[in-house]
Amino acid sequence: MLLRIDHVGVACHNLEEKIEFYESVFGLTVVSREVNEEQGVREAMLHVADGDQGASYVQLLEPLHPDTAVGRFLAKRGEGVHHIGYGVADVTEALEEIGAKGVRLIDERPRHGSMGASIAFLHPKDVGGVLTELVETSRR
Ligand code: MC0
Predict the structure, then answer these.
(1) Pairing mode of beta strands 54-63, 4-11
(2) What residues line ligand 1, using a CB cutoff of 6 Å?
(3) Which tens digit of pLDDT belongs to each residue from 49-100?
């Protein structure tokens, strides 16, 4: 069901500073920047690699306000890995299949994600403490 790691989401206080760090230390390049009001984030995707099933990225996330998913995460845990996004062929089908196995779905239906993707989150408490995102993308 999981085709690849689409992205690793990293929570940070200052997006511009963290972009500069990933560019200068790892030589990564920003391929997209977006503000996602629904998710409460300002984010940037940095391209890491291309594979048979599609590309992979580091996604840097800065909260728009303290009272958002990433804002609360930063207050509780500080900067670091926030979630893992896995590529799937069909996010609606994947949600049905995973939900039927008793895993709590944060999103019952796909939502709008970075670079036009359809995304849905699974509850970290049912995935061994890992906030898990399913990503269906047309950018293969
Ligand atoms: C919270 N918890 C996490 C966590 N965030 N565990 C692992 N990874 C995380 N990222 C844990 C807390 O430590 C706490 O456990 C429990 O979950 C409840 O947390 P809370 O402090 O009450 O926090 P809430 O209210 O934010 O709820 C957590 C939840 C929420 C995961 C349900 O953050 C959520 O719905 N996230 C999905 C949406 C999201 O994260 N959007 C931002 C990225 P204890 O044991 O202390 O009770 S948007 C994105 O990435 C898009 C743009 C894209 O990829 O395209």
Answers:
(1) parallel
(2) 9, 36, 39, 41, 43, 59, 61, 69-70, 72-73, 76, 82-83, 85, 106, 113-114, 119, 121, 124, 129, 131, 133
(3) 999 989 999 999 999 999 999 999 999 999 999 999 999 999 999 999 999 9
Query: What is the CATH number for 91?
Result: 3.10.180.10
Q: Which of 139, 5, 11 is nearest to 75 (CA)?
A: 11
- What is the token pair recorded at 125? 């408490």
β-pair partners for 38: none
Number of separate domains in the chain = 1
pTM above 0.80, yes or no: yes
Note the pLDDT tens digit of each residue in 125-134. Answer: 999 999 999 9
Residue-range definition of the domain harbouring residue 99: 4-136
